[in-house]
Write a structure and sequence with these properties.
Chain A: Keywords: Signal. Chain A: This is Twin-arginine translocation signal domain-containing protein. Chain A: It comes from Hymenobacter citatus. The complex is a heterodimer. By secondary structure, chain A is an all-alpha fold. Chain A has five helices and no strands. In chain A, helix 2 packs across helix 3. The N terminus of chain A is likely disordered. Chain B is globular and about 70 Å long. The two termini of chain B are about 30 Å apart. The mean pLDDT of chain B is about 95. The chains are: A mainly alpha, B alpha/beta.
């Protein structure tokens, strides 16, 4: 299984190394690519762009600087190829974290409002903030 | 140390050791001398939360990260655990389903793996005892037989859970869990924060908040910072335990010794000591899990009061286990959503957890450093991988009571954070390392506790069962001092 996965990843990496330069992937920074992925994923929302950029800065500061060169290439590739969260768990993880870090759920998912970044979502600073849990959607009282 | 020799020496302070000690103390006289050797140090819950917030505390760095404690020969495979007082009670997610009765009879029923030497019926009263101590929350009707109600009411279903429960009855239940539904015993109710390794509201059961009184007992001497690496084995008995503390080696005598480190370190200690049982260190394993995201047509999947609301058993037991692994379904309630306008929670997310079997490609050996086991992992078995394929074939039909638009499968996780095997349980040295009382077949005053002893790797979470096994072992191996006098 590891061998198969390694070959798959190695194949993707090799393909990325060949294809991405021709797509101009190296013209964008990691942060720009990550912000672009978020903006693409939520293209139907009015995102506070500076907030998106700040989120990306905060995200990578929290994640540390140990990311591999492959991870950089991957994010740029995802950006260039418009990969969304249905196609990549990494994209799902980052875009989910972004939206949880905004006022979107406090505004009850009102898509007409500007979505503003509020600081990285952290259940240790704000516990019980799961926006779909029974705390926010309590069961109907028994008849 | 207060003494040079002890009636009992216990290694580790996690679930396996603590529940063993709990039962042992209940049976033994006031004169008993017990030494507990713990390689790490205690860290209070509030300080753990501070660490998670990124704040420096006086406890920061006292206990090593799991990655630095062993030689991982397959770095793409994680083996997660927590070093320190209370062990992996400080990283578990407090899921406490029982095993099914058939999990203990895999060879007889399905011709795979081996049968456990202990049966469900024998373990039942010990399951009940652990569930009461942990104040487990759970439903009235379960796919495994129980004789009394859970201590706490069940957590709440989401809308999807309600529909699946309506269709499948006791094959789809509120997850039995030691994440509190209501405040109890110093713990707060779970509020679905979804980061249970260190619960931000102290809702889950840990050794620290257990109020079991084990480490406060005057018969127990707890020595922290003491890493055990070997045993002195003489004429089929353990005589002494060797450990290192502050860069000094110590050797202490014990009448009875109980190893309650995890499956990596129990094996390392046995192998360092010269244990030649053919199965020692062999068959390391765990379950295999992956996430399935299910998009729903116009069904809002809201509600739920905890991290995993429900367990589904529709793909678990049956004749398919002759060929393909059982699958336990966990209904996730982390803060996920569907990134589409107006459909934010028209989605469910299930973790599909597959059983596995011990295989020769996965094992533990010693390394150049007596303190560090070397861990080899060739991968999950074909049996587990066939379980995934079977699940993917059958899940659409199983979810046909829901308006499913699409199912997205992630790659398997690098770990389910369970470390199983390496000192498996059986009937003799021909098939195992320990007997049903977790006593080594050759060294009869040596217990090897915890998930090390698992014979096969059912998809259900291991902690409840390994804790019940510790109670059974202590209860059935030692006479009561009360009845003796």
């Amino acid at each position: 299984m590891f061998r198969r996965k390694f070959l798959k990843i190695a194949g993707l990496g090799a393909a990325a190394a060949v294809v991405l330069p021709s797509l101009g992937a190296y013209a964008v920074s990691l942060n720009e690519a990550t912000a672009g992925i978020i903006l693409h994923q939520f293209h139907f929302l009015d995102l506070d762009r500076k907030g998106v950029e700040q989120f990306v800065l905060d995200y990578y500061q929290q994640e540390g600087s140990s990311r591999s060169a492959f991870a950089h290439v991957k994010m740029r590739g995802y950006y260039m190829l418009n990969i969304n969260s249905d196609q990549s768990q990494l994209v799902r993880t980052i875009t989910t974290l972004y939206l949880l870090s905004t006022d979107f759920f406090q505004n009850r998912m009102d898509e007409r409002k500007i979505v503003r970044y509020q600081g990285i979502y952290d259940p240790y600073k704000t516990p019980c903030a799961n926006p779909f849990s029974a705390l926010y959607y309590p069961p109907a009282p028994a008849a | 140390m207060k003494h040079t020799a002890y009636d009992l020496i216990v290694v580790g302070t996690g679930f396996a050791s603590t529940f063993f000690l709990y039962q042992y103390l209940a049976k033994r006289p006031a004169t008993e001398k017990i030494l507990v050797l713990e390689r790490g140090y205690p860290v209070p819950w509030a300080e753990r939360v501070k660490e998670k917030r990124g704040e420096q505390t006086a406890y920061t760095g006292q206990n090593p990260d799991w990655r630095s404690t062993f030689v991982n020969k397959q770095p793409r495979k994680d083996w997660m655990f927590t070093v320190g007082f209370g062990g992996s009670s400080h990283c578990w997610y407090a899921c406490t389903p029982r095993f099914l009765p058939n999990d203990f009879r895999m060879k007889t029923l399905y011709g795979v793996g081996n049968d456990w030497p202990v049966h469900y019926e024998e373990l039942d009263p010990y399951y009940e005892q652990v569930e009461d101590i942990m104040a487990v929350s759970g439903p009235a009707d379960t796919p495994f037989p129980r004789k009394k109600a859970y201590a706490q009411p069940p957590h709440l279903f989401t809308e999807v859970d309600k529909r699946l429960h309506q269709k499948y009855g006791n094959l789809y239940i509120n997850q039995p869990t030691a994440r509190a539904r209501v405040a109890t015993n110093g713990r707060n109710p779970c509020c679905a924060s979804g980061v249970c390794s260190v619960c931000p509201v102290n809702a889950k059961f840990t050794i620290d908040n257990s109020n079991m009184g084990v480490y406060e007992d005057p018969r127990v001497e707890l020595l922290t910072g003491a890493q055990v690496y070997g045993l002195e084995l003489v004429q089929d008995r353990v005589r002494k335990v060797s450990f290192r503390r502050d860069n000094r080696d110590y050797h202490v005598a014990g009448e009875v010794v109980a190893l309650g480190a995890n499956a990596l370190f129990n094996a390392n200690i046995l192998l360092n000591s010269g244990d030649t049982n053919a199965f020692t260190g062999q068959g390391l394993g765990e379950q295999l899990g992956l996430q399935a995201h299910v998009y729903l047509d116009n069904l809002e999947n809201v509600g739920g009061s905890t991290w995993v609301n429900a367990n589904g058993y529709m793909l678990y037991d049956g004749d398919h286990r002759r060929e393909a692994a059982a699958c336990l379904i966990e209904s996730s309630n982390a803060p996920f959503f569907r990134p589409e306008s107006g459909k934010w929670r028209q989605m469910a997310s299930f973790r599909m957890v597959f059983e596995d079997l011990p295989t020769p490609a996965n094992y533990v050996t010693t390394s150049d450093d007596v303190l560090q086991p070397a861990v080899f992992f060739g991968g999950p078995s074909d049996y587990a991988l066939r379980g995934i394929e079977r699940m993917k074939q059958q899940l659409p039909e199983i979810l046909s009571c829901l308006p499913v638009e699409k199912i997205i499968y992630n790659d398997p996780y690098a770990t389910e954070a369970h470390i199983l095997g390496t000192a498996r349980m059986g009937t003799s040295t021909q098939d195992s390392v320990v007997d049903k009382h977790l006593r080594h077949h050759q060294y009869r005053n040596l217990f090897v506790l915890g998930a090390s002893s698992f014979t096969t790797y059912t998809p259900a979470n291991p902690t409840l069962t390994l804790s019940a096994l510790s109670l059974l072992a202590a209860d059935q191996s030692f006479p009561s001092s009360h009845s003796a006098t």
